[in-house]
Amino acid sequence: MKLRIKGNSIRLRLSQTEVAQFADRGVCDDSINFGVSTLNYSLEKGAETKAVFADNRVCVYVNENDANHWSSNETEVGISHMQPIGGGSELYILIEKDFACLTERPFEDESDNFPNPNTTC
């Protein structure tokens, strides 16, 4: 599972195996080891869609009905949500199926990514 953070946005991209695991278990998780500390992150089915950060863990919860529809529907690419975070600000949450790139990336294994529906850039 890929994690991308930029400003007030967080995006998770899941491979085919990870989407299947999420559908079956209701959770998919991964981590980044920095040597002296580890950042854990997960996608979990829950009552509402929201992201939480506590104890070196980013947890993105997705409404269970939305999660089930997304993980079982081939044409449903992503789930997006705006989470109010106070002071008139919002956190943009995006969960997507990870498509294979159209151009080769020699240092990235994309063998488990979803087939890209586009044929050209």
Structure description:
With 121 residues, the chain is an alpha/beta fold. It has one domain (2-97): 2-Layer Sandwich (Gyrase A, domain 2). 16% of the residues lie in helices and 47% in strands. It contains two helices and eight strands. The strands form two sheets. A four-stranded mixed β-sheet has the order 1-2-8-7. Strands 3-4-6-5 form a four-stranded mixed β-sheet. Helix 1 packs across helix 2 (64-72). The longest helix is centred in the first third of the chain and has 10 residues, at 16-25. It is globular, with a radius of gyration of 15 Å. The mean pLDDT is 87.
Strand content: over 45%
Continuous helix count: 2
User: Biggest sheet: strands side by side, in what order?
Assistant: 1-2-8-7
Largest sheet: 4 strands, mixed
Oligomer: single chain
Determine and state the CATH class: Alpha Beta
CATH architecture term: 2-Layer Sandwich
> What is the domain tally?
1
Q: Can you write the helix and strand succession as a string?
A: EEHEEEEHEE
Mean pLDDT metric: 87
State Rg.
Answer: 15 Å
Global shape = globular
The name of the CATH topology is: Gyrase A, domain 2
As residue ranges, the low-confidence spans are none
Which structural class fits the helix and strand makeup? alpha/beta
List the helices and strands and how they pair.
Elements: E1 2-6, E2 9-14, H1 16-25, E3 27-33, E4 38-46, E5 50-54, E6 57-63, H2 64-72, E7 78-86, E8 89-97
Parallel strand pairs: 2-8, 4-6
Antiparallel strand pairs: 1-2, 3-4, 5-6, 7-8
